Amino acid sequence: MNPQLAGIESLAGTYVFDLARSAKALVLNRFLHGLIALANRTLFRDDPEAAFACAGLSEEERVLVRNLDWRGLIRYGASFFTLEKLARVRGVSNPEMVAAMRGETLEEFLKTRNVPGAR
Amino acid sequence: MARIIGGIGTSHVPTIGVAYDRNKRDDPDWAPLFKGYEPVARWLAKRKPDVLVFFYNDHATTFFFDHYPTFALGVSAQHPIADEGLGPRPVPALKGHPALARHMVEALITEEFDLSVFQDLPLDHGCHSPLTMFWPPAPDWPGAVVPIAINVLQHPLPTPLRCYKLGQAVRRAVESYPEDLKVVVVGTGGLSHQMNGERAGFNNTEWDMKFLDLIERDPATLTAMKHADYMRLGGTEGAEVIMWLAMRGALSNGAKKIHQNYYLPMTAAMAVALFEETGPQPEQEDPV
């Protein structure tokens, strides 16, 4: 147990990216990270199923990515920062991702913000 | 001899760089952010540092979890702008300072800070999203950057105290460099935000204000806290403010905060704080 994280389990709705999560989702995170390369983005746009096969994603991982299931992807073990690459490629903004993780629509989420136009 | 003349703590939210690239200076939703950086830009234009040493983090862009360094220092003459999914930002490659950077690596490893060293790798928004606000390219960058990446993504992270000690070692490394260089240290990240799970969107302005106070006058209170404390108070991703502790550790105890700005428009609290060394500074000019 990492003593720096003692008590962290009491924070509800929080998924700390540690070595166990990183190991579980390494293949998925590698695929997402790969989207920083134009060739990978092109393949993913043109033929997502071929991109999934090329990356060796499991069926469970493919479903999560196909559906842009942000909450499910985080729970599974994706890093938020590799998910950002997927979001950029799919034209999804960070406020939309955060709203989905909270179980809210974008409009509901923006009502909780100080400057809803700043995005 | 090289010397550290001041420090900057700043958020590195990607939208800070986007707002600059899209020139949203006069957009009322973004104007408070631009205004908050103006005193920092003026101070840098007046004091003209040669080098900014940047404590920042990579966002699983240049480094992936197959080999994610705890501390890594860039020693090349140029650092390209990273493609994070939309192509690189339209700003020039950052200029490095290989001679100072190599000296710093030697000095740090001699005192048992066994960090990784990288060359030719691109830097992501963790470094340059705030940089354009206070040190804009016109058309090229005003000086060089020595980037020091800190792992704040994959736990275990370096402890808050270790980050502070890294800053102290960086100060000794800079001050033992023989050439007369003016150096400013920058720590990026924060303030409060959480980007994962049902708790995403969490902020805590009260804690952010306390942090901005403690970082100046009582960093020991901050180095005694655990990552779990930072995550509870400032959100999981807000814990990256430990990179400000590296910046603070590279300043003297008596460094004074001469400006700060705080703006929380959306998901992440955007702050900037400017610190100035108050010791003997032969060419010190009026404060901003």
* SSE-based structural type of chain A: mainly alpha
Uncertain segments of chain A of ≥5 residues (pLDDT<50)?
Answer: none
Distance between the termini of chain A: 38 Å
Work out the helicity level of chain A.
55-70%
Unreliable stretches covering 5 or more consecutive residues of chain B: none
Helix tally of chain B? 9
State the helix count of chain A.
Answer: 9
* Biggest chain pair interface: A-B, 56 and 41 residues
| Number of beta-strand segments of chain A | 0
Written as H for each helix and E for each strand, in order along the chain, the element string of chain A is HHHHHHHHH
Give the overall silhouette of chain B: globular
Spatial strand sequence of the major β-sheet of chain B: 6-3-7-2-8-1-10-9
Cα(first) to Cα(last) distance of chain B is 25 Å
* Rg over CA atoms of chain A: 16 Å
Note the main sheet of chain A.
none
Radius of gyration of chain B: 17 Å
What is the beta-strand fraction of chain A? under 5%
Outline the structure in words.
The complex is a heterodimer of chains A (119) and B (288). With 119 residues, chain A is mainly α. Chain A is built from nine helices and no strands. In chain A, helix 2 packs across helix 7, helix 3 crosses helix 4 (48-55) and helix 6 packs across helix 8. The longest helix of chain A is centred in the C-terminal third of the chain and has 11 residues, at 80-90. Chain A is globular. Chain A starts with 18 loop residues before the first helix and ends in an 8-residue tail after the last helix. Chain B is α/β, with parallel strands linked by helices and 288 residues long. Chain B is 34% helix and 19% strand. Chain B is built from nine helices and ten strands. Chain B has helices at residues 14-21, 31-47, 98-110, 125-134, 160-175, 205-217, 219-223, 227-234, 242-249, and strands spanning 3-10, 51-56, 71-74, 78-79, 94-95, 116-118, 144-150, 182-188, 256-263, 270-276. Chain B has an eight-stranded mixed sheet with strand order 6-3-7-2-8-1-10-9, with helices on both faces. A two-stranded antiparallel ribbon of chain B has the order 4-5. The model of chain B has no long low-confidence stretch (mean pLDDT 96). At the A-B interface, helix 2, helix 6, helix 7 and helix 8 of A face helix 8 of B.
